[in-house]
Amino acid sequence: MVQWHTKSRKKTSGGKRTTVRRCDKKKAWMGGLPANTKTSETSEQEIKTKQGRGSKLKKRTIQTKYVNVVDKKTGKVQKLEIIAVKENNANRLFARSNITTKGAIIRVKSGNTEKLAKVTNRPGQDGNVNAELTE
């Protein structure tokens, strides 16, 4: 189902609002559904391409197993495996479902140890998952 990003035609008092915009619905005001990037069990990464406004193409990550993690102390970037989502402030049910969004704390496997990393990008719009190590 499509989400329309417009004001309601009713006021909070219950009265009718006469002019919201120049017309009722326009394709540019139409929103989409969230990508809800999940942690996959297999090694395949599923990416869908969505056409944006104009000739813009957005790559939406649907499933992923790996994350690009930067260590701020050393400045090195590693490709690590995602174990699970520990917490997600966007929605507390996302942690149970292993859904990754910006700001989520994820557990990653680095060698034999597990480390925590914070997601710094929006995987539903970038096509990959980037994170930085936390302590």
UniProtKB/TrEMBL annotation:
Q: Which InterPro entries match?
A: Ribosomal_eS8, Ribosomal_Se8/biogenesis_NSA2
Q: Name one GO cellular component term.
A: ribosome
Is Ribosomal protein included in the keywords of this UniProt record? Answer: yes
Alphabetic keyword roster: Ribonucleoprotein, Ribosomal protein
Q: Which GO terms label this protein's molecular function in UniProt?
A: structural constituent of ribosome
Q: Where is this region: Disordered?
A: 28-57, 116-135
Pfam families referenced in this protein's UniProt entry, alphabetically: Ribosomal_S8e
Q: From the UniProt annotation, give the residues forming the signal peptide.
A: none
Q: Keyword Thylakoid, does the record have it?
A: no
One of the protein's GO biological processes: translation
Q: Which family does the record claim for this protein?
A: Belongs to the eukaryotic ribosomal protein eS8 family.
Protein name in UniProt = 30S ribosomal protein S8e
Q: What is the lineage of its organism?
A: Archaea, Candidatus Iainarchaeota, Candidatus Iainarchaeia, Candidatus Iainarchaeales, Candidatus Iainarchaeaceae
